[in-house]
Design a protein that fits this description.
The protein is an alpha+beta fold. The protein has two helices and five strands.
Length: 115
């Protein structure tokens, strides 16, 4: 499988990142986009995704560190904004066997309920 295929015209998160599909964006910069998950599994449930299309977290290289460092920092800042520093989770599913349904990397920022 190709590690990072070019942005797919059928990838919903690429479409959200490029504003092709209208979604309320919570945060975005050159590397990262954050928006609410469609199916909320907790009172706070935000997806933090790389702007660039990555199918999953396999095969990352040093060149990807800035993007993934930024994702964790954005999650931390959103947690502060939402005043949930007391308790939140940040997790990512990798591959079908890991429960990943959307094949564009996304970190779940969840709070208010253990999942
Ligand atoms: P996964 O199981 O791949 O880790 O999670 C997929 C996530 O993507 C779920 O939280 C689901 O609600 C979210 N999701 C799937 N399609 C859309 C969409 O079109 N818009 C938004 N905002 N979230 C989506
Ligand atoms: Zn994509």
């Amino acid at each position: 499988m190709e590690k990072n295929p070019v942005e797919s015209t059928s990838c919903i998160f690429c479409k959200i990142a490029s504003h092709e599909v209208e979604t309320k964006i919570i945060f975005e910069d050159d590397l990262v986009v954050a928006f609410k998950a469609q199916n909320q599994i907790a009172p706070v449930h935000i997806l933090v995704v790389p702007r660039k299309h990555y199918t999953n977290l396999n095969g990352l290289t040093q060149a990807d560190e800035a993007t993934y460092g930024r994702i964790v920092r954005v999650a931390s800042e959103l947690a502060a904004q939402k005043k949930i520093e007391d308790g939140w989770q940040l997790f990512v599913r990798v591959g079908k066997g890991g429960g990943q349904e959307v094949m564009h990397v996304h970190f779940h920022l969840v709070s208010g309920q253990h999942v």
